[in-house]
Amino acid sequence: MKLSVPLPGDFDSLKKIVKNAPEDVCEVYMAGSAEFMGSGRATLHSPFLGDIKKQIDYVHRKNIQMNLILNSSCIGGQHLTFGGYNMIRGYLSQLNNLGLDSITVSEPYLVEMISKDFPKIRVGVSCIAHTDSPQKAQFFEKLGAEDITLDTNINRHFDLIEAIRESTDCKLKIIANEACIYKCPFRYSHFNLFSHVTGPPPKPEIFGDYYFEKCISLRVRNPELIIRSPWVRPEDMEVYEKIGINILKISGRANTTNWIIDVIKHYGEGKYQGNLLEILDCPNELRDLFYIPNEKLEGAIHQWMNCSKLCHRCNFCKDLAKKSLKEV
């Protein structure tokens, strides 16, 4: 299966990651320039146009494509003002001139704008758009989307993934190593917060990240939530390939370069031995507290393939947590 891998955003990190990338890597992705639009995730580096051009040219020499992430879940309605529209359109025009391969967005208006006005750029739909049904996938395809990153909440809803595959010709991506809580009640609000914190001014001067702290505390008190998270083990990638997933996306562009290299190595090999949390995009606090031997999870996917996801009626993840998860 092809891999889409994250970049912190600086050229030195790019060179190290590409140098160590397995042959299955078809695409690298990074955040765009913060002065134009925010991002749904934390961002280490916000490259300017000159930096983006340098990195595009470099990966093209390595036969790898560059994807820019402009997936703010909230841009404050600026795209529907004359000033905001002109600013965004101007930025997209400059990216088009750089030879950028693709852009990933979550705003439907931008999907349509890019597909109509910048046909040389492939437009993709972010997981932040929460595509979780055939109907929504078809909606985005009609707007002009060429690839869709599915809502991580359906990573283990195999019937939905198969139905989406049947209903659209778009390339489908899933995020393999995101460790967010399944059906997290903070997800929409947290994405909105990041979109404003990482975006153009005026930036909110927040006194803390309530959602991050709450999310950690819930999992510390109830570790079975970690098992319920919709991550995909490297060993289980082939299951998704068989049902029509085209690209496995690795999460973690706010992590260190060495961590990214290590994670894509294991997914490229399709195997990993050790603490699963070490290859998941999760807070360090969880890695410091818990150890989950990846080999202890072998075969669990067969349960999840047939699971109703009515957790209050099923103790599988709870029992698996008791058997496999250890406190450090």
Structural account:
The chain is an alpha/beta fold and 328 residues long. The chain has a single domain (2-327), classed as Aldolase class I (TIM Barrel). The protein is 42% helix and 12% strand. It has 14 helices and ten strands. It has helices at 11-19, 49-61, 82-98, 108-117, 134-143, 158-167, 187-197, 210-221, 224-228, 237-242, 257-269, 284-289, 300-305, 316-324; strands at residues 2-6, 25-31, 65-70, 102-105, 122-125, 147-149, 171-175, 247-249, 290-291, 326-327. It has an eight-stranded parallel barrel, surrounded by four helices. A two-stranded antiparallel ribbon has the order 9-10. The radius of gyration is 19 Å and the shape is globular.
Indicate the topology.
Elements: E1 2-6, H1 11-19, E2 25-31, H2 49-61, E3 65-70, H3 82-98, E4 102-105, H4 108-117, E5 122-125, H5 134-143, E6 147-149, H6 158-167, E7 171-175, H7 187-197, H8 210-221, H9 224-228, H10 237-242, E8 247-249, H11 257-269, H12 284-289, E9 290-291, H13 300-305, H14 316-324, E10 326-327
Parallel strand pairs: 1-2, 1-8, 2-3, 3-4, 4-5, 5-6, 6-7, 7-8
Antiparallel strand pairs: 9-10
By CATH, the superfamily comes out as Aldolase class I
Strand content: 5-15%
- What's the helix-strand series? EHEHEHEHEHEHEHHHHEHHEHHE
Write down the CATH class. Alpha Beta
Q: Total domains, how many?
A: 1
Write out the strand line-up for the largest beta sheet, numbering strands in chain order: 1-2-3-4-5-6-7-8
